[in-house]
Amino acid sequence: MSSAKVLIAGEWRDSDATGTYRAENPSTCQALPCDYPVSSWSDCEEALNAATSAFLALRSPSAEKIANFLERYATLIEERADALVEMAHQETGLPKSPRLADVELPRTTGQLRQAAAAARTGNWRQPIIDSANNIRSCYGSIGPVIVFGPNNFPFAFGSISGGDFAAAIAAGNPVIAKANSSHPGTSKLFAEAAQDAAGAAGLPDGMVQLIYRTSHSIGEQLVTDPRTGATGYTGARKAGLKLKKAADKAGKPIYLELSSVNPVVLLPAVLEEKGAALAEEFTSSCLMGAGQFCTNPGMLVLIKSDAAESFISAVIEQFSANTSGTLLSASVEKSLHESHKILTKAGAEVLCGTGEGNGTGYNVANTLLRVTGFRFLHDPETMQTEAFGNSSLIVVAENINEAEKVIAALEGNLTGCIYSSESGADDASYDRLAPVLRQKTGRLLNDKMPTGVAVSPAMNHGGPYPATGHPGFTAVGIPAALLRFGMLHSFDNVRAHRLPDILKDDYDGPTQRLIDGVWK
Questions:
Q1: 3-state secondary structure at position 14
Q2: Is 287 helix (H, G, I), strand (E, B) or coil?
Q3: Can you give the pTM of this predicted structure?
């Protein structure tokens, strides 16, 4: 049987493959019928050549063309919604409704349209003019961008549909998308729509390309190639760090989203006031989507009290009563079991779960683990092993002093949350813990579980290592997300007619410009 074609240089063509593979339906644990190629370096070479040609053709990219592409693409996605939802459901086991059709697909088209607006206004470019010295600067495109998408959001974070893709394109860069192996068919459907939209917008061949899988060594070669401008990666820490090591050695920017336990702190007075409601809220957040969110609350910090024990009992009851959700793949199931073994070997107590689940397909029992603050501090690195899935570790500190030490020992996280009483009874504790947690997280929340990431200009979906590879950037939040795929262009004494339009004195566009210290 022939395998699916790759999209290279504006054409769907046979891959120069080193092998083939099939995706699985995680709900049935059965392979799906289509074969997909494992690309050789020859495919990557041709894709890089085409992307480089597209980049040169867009050296002075038309913001209107790019915005038109993004908007047209969003419309084509909506027109093909049924096929996309059906394919993604088969490949990921995620519910058609509300998850895929009603939540993730509108989010995907929404962020594409936000990216189009950012391309049009150009405010992300931050133009600065120093008239006295005739020096001018702005952000511009960086070159071909490689995007590695994750397994858990086939639409909104997909390599050829998600936030990294939208940001890279809006910044004027061609994208070579490396589909996640868990949902290649979904990526192919997106690529077909993207190719149609690119043609309608008059973008050059090679602006949007798709390959499905490569070996690890070829992936590293791809991110370090001299023609590559930058890379966006969302996925497992181990694989991401290998790519980062290679990219760093080559001096190539790479933006990573790796792992996060997303600590939630429940202070004593708020537990006294509404512990039962918080138990339901926490359980819902942990088990939503079988816990396969990058902002899933994988760690809970409590201070020893009767209210804390009542809360734990309620959560155990609810975890045990809920059906375990379907995990995305056999590897996710295996990894979750391995994480539980690491945590229990390090001293965590099993409160419920860890074994075989009661759901369908790949699944693990809803799992709660418990450890004292003292034990956590004995080996904080191991105790922060990410258990990606329907699982959470409860850390019970003796007092506020020990809770502060636990938070101080945390690695970097995407999110961190503190619940406190509205009466003010927890304020002194909050004031001690919040500044420590603030430096450990990209997004600090109050009285709200972290699950979910709003597509807002003010959003930071990033954080200190190992949540990401760099704390100064976000993967969600336009226009800030575009800066990852731009470079600062400075023009010193360059003649007026040779400047980008956005830096000319007679510019009459929508972009805010800092001219001699004043925004205009």
A1: coil
A2: helix
A3: 0.95
Question: What is the pLDDT at residue 516?
Answer: 97
228 falls within a domain: yes
Going by pLDDT thresholds of 50, 70 and 90, the confidence category of residue 1 is low
The H or E element that residue 491 is part of is strand 486-492
C-alpha closest to that of 366 among 307, 312, 313, 326: 326
Strand partners, 373: none
> Catalytic positions, please?
257, 294
In angstroms, the Cα distances linking 16 to 34, 222, 324 are 17, 16, 41
Boundary (domain end) residue, out of 408, 431, 446: 446
- Tokens representing residue 472 in the block: 């100064």
- pLDDT digit string (tens) for 208-217? 999 999 999 9
Q: Taking 80 as the threshold, does the pLDDT of residue 409 lie above it?
A: yes
Q: What pLDDT, on a 0 to 100 scale, did the predictor assign at position 145? A: 98
267 alpha-carbon distance from chain centroid:
29
CB 490 within 8 A of CB 499: no
Give the N- to C-terminal CA distance of the chain in Å, as an integer. 61
What sign results for the dihedral spanned by CA atoms 75, 114, 498, 141? Answer: negative
CA atoms within 13 A on the CB side of 494: 17
- What's the CATH number where 36 sits? 3.40.605.10
Q: What burial class does residue 503 get, using C-beta atoms within 10 Å of its C-beta: 0-12 exposed, 13-18 middle, 19+ buried?
A: buried
* pLDDT tens digit sequence for 267-301: 999 999 999 999 999 999 999 999 999 999 999 99
Same domain for 483 and 424, yes or no, is no
Residue 58's pLDDT is 85
Our CA angle for 415, 416, 419, nearest 5°, is 135
Query: Contact, 163 vs 111, CB < 8 A?
Result: yes
Q: Which domain holds residue 15?
A: 6-23+30-258+471-503
Assess whether 200 and 314 both reside in one domain. Answer: no
Distance CA 365, CA 369 (A): 12
pLDDT band at residue 62, thresholds of 50, 70 and 90?
confident
CA distance 91 to 86: 9
Cβ proximity of 174 and 9 under 8 Å: no
What single string gives the DSSP state of each residue in 424-464?
STTHHHHHHHHHHHHTTEEEEEESS---S----TT-----S
